[in-house]
Specification:
By secondary structure, the protein is an alpha/beta fold. It contains 16 helices and 22 strands. The strands form 7 sheets. The chain has a 7-stranded mixed sheet with strand order 16-17-15-14-20-21-22. It has a 5-stranded mixed sheet with strand order 3-2-1-5-13, sandwiched between helices. The longest helix is centred in the last third of the chain and has 27 residues.
């Protein structure tokens, strides 16, 4: 078998290892789900030790399935669920508690207190983000304030922080005593602690949060052959392989979709829904509820920035319909159920389970189903569930066009939900632009592979990556304008009903 790149895709619900060839095609894949832990209302946790065990399992499984020698892998890339926050002991490798997941809302009071001294945009000029339970900084402060002995250990440099990328790289490169404690610019930009201009931790903000600088990882480019070291001979790969690509999952998908030029955008439909617009080497600060974030940085090249619209609940709403209500047996069943009715029956579902993210940033909002009548069936609920993702995407796109002044001519899409033909057509109708699905839909893992492969010259430049991208299918808008306007007006009324629910 020819040389390949391995990508570890550590997501909110599962961990995967994928192998890619030079054409960007998937040669092998293995996957393990991990537990979702809900200690109380609003709290969401992951067991980081379980995630590391799953990571080892999927690496070994994909090697065995493809009968591949580890020596055929020439580099490893990482992509991960962003903002999920972990603190562990540098000497033992033991976490001080479960990882606090990005969806967790326990830091609401803390964020409100910080906003009282300014506003939710108190730090936005420096970090591009509003104060929100979403980001890592408030989660770190909560841990320091609530876990006995942690602050003292952090001040001594014994307790160290990382999002899940840092945790995996640390273990892959040796763990206690020799593991590399690093993160890349994309993950660092999701903490509320990294200055967008300097690409380093902002000491003034660290002081406000009360976070010791010594517990933070070193910030590096997203693709860098020198930064992190290699896997170890006693690790899951069994040989030394450079670990040299690292991006947050949504930025990795932007890279995997070959959105290299300013004005190119992608939308990923996963647990949440995330649209990113490449804005080039200068950050654009949003005035319409979007996030300014790092898109990627390739070795010594200038950093590239993006505008992002983050939607908390997309595919997770389908899971809720399946697991909590029992209306479908598998997630794939929702399309058949949705197509059993001609429309949504006049109902809307606004899934503000953890408040509303972009473009509202309202932690007081909670989910609603509106427009219910005796006519409504399970089919109407299924249809409204899918349509909720499309409506939320429309709001993000509108904000993105206002901030950037760029009118998108099409939207590249990826993620688990893009196999749903009804959702993709409804999305094109609402946006009134073509929606384009690539042949390789594993764009998140592919972006991590690209970052690692560029670092070791497996691919020479971005032109090679762009040549790999191929269209699988596109959906053309066909909805009458009067229908579109009526549906959007109904959605806006539904969103208004979610606000001010939490006192």
């Amino acid at each position: 078998m020819p040389s390949v790149i391995a990508a570890i895709d550590q997501g909110t619900t599962s961990t995967r290892c994928l192998l890619f060839d030079h054409a960007g095609q998937v040669l092998g894949i293995a996957q393990r789900e991990h537990r979702q832990i809900y200690p109380q209302a609003g709290w969401v946790e992951h067991d980081a030790v379980e995630i590391w065990e799953c990571t080892q399992d999927v690496i070994q499984e994909v090697l065995q399935k493809k009968r591949l020698s580890p020596s055929d892998i020439i580099a490893v890339g990482i992509t991960n669920q962003r903002e999920t926050t972990l603190v562990w002991n540098r000497e033992s490798g033991e976490p001080y508690c479960h990882a606090i997941v990005w969806q967790d809302t326990r830091t609401k009071d803390l964020c409100d207190q910080l906003a009282a001294d300014g506003s939710i945009d108190r730090f936005r000029d420096k970090v591009g983000l509003p104060l929100s339970t979403y980001f890592s900084g408030p989660k770190i402060q909560w841990m320091l304030d609530n876990i006995p002995g942690l602050r003292a250990d952090a001040e001594r440099g014994e307790a160290i922080f990382g999002n899940i990328d840092s945790w995996l790289i640390w273990w892959l490169t040796g763990g206690p005593g020799c593991g590399s404690h690093v993160t890349d610019v994309t993950n660092a930009s999701r903490t509320m602690l990294m200055n967008l201009t300097t690409l380093d931790w902002d000491m003034d903000i660290l002081k406000v949060f009360g976070i010791p600088h010594q517990m933070l990882p070193r910030i590096t480019p997203s693709s860098d052959p020198q930064s992190w070291g290699a896997t170890t001979s006693d690790g899951p790969f069994g040989v030394r392989i450079p670990v040299c690509g690292n991006l947050g999952d949504q930025q990795a998908a932007l890279l995997g979709q070959a959105c290299f030029d300013p004005g190119e955008a992608k939308n990923t439909y996963g647990t949440g829904c995330f649209m990113l617009l490449n804005t080039g080497v200068q950050p654009i600060h949003s005035h319409h509820g979007l996030l300014t974030t790092l898109a990627y940085q390739l070795h010594s090249a200038p950093a590239v920035y993006a505008l992002e619209g983050s939607i908390a609940i997309a595919g997770a709403l389908v899971q809720w319909l399946r697991d909590n209500l029992g209306l479908i047996r598998t997630s794939r069943d929702i399309e058949t159920l949705a197509l059993s009715v001609p429309d949504s029956g006049g109902i809307y579902i606004v899934p503000a389970f953890s408040g509303l993210f972009a473009p509202y940033w309202r932690t007081d909002a909670r989910g609603v189903i509106v427009g219910l009548t005796r006519y409504v069936t399970a089919g109407h609920l299924a249809r409204a569930t899918l349509e909720a993702t499309a409506y939320q995407t429309l709001e993000v796109l509108d904000a993105m066009q206002k901030d950037s002044g760029i009118t998108l001519s099409s939207l590249k899409v990826d993620g688990g939900m893009v196999s749903n033909e009804y959702l993709m057509q409804f999305q094109a109708d609402l946006l009134n632009v073509p929606v384009i699905r690539p042949k390789v839909t594993e764009t998140t893992a592919l972006g991590a592979a690209y970052a690692a492969g560029l670092a070791v010259n497996f691919w020479n430049d971005l032109r090679e990556l762009r040549a790999n991208w191929q269209m699988d299918k596109s959906w053309t808008p066909g909805m009458p304008e009067v229908t579109r306007d009526r549906l959007i007006h109904g959605w806006q009324k539904a969103v208004a009903r979610t606000l001010d629910w939490v006192d």
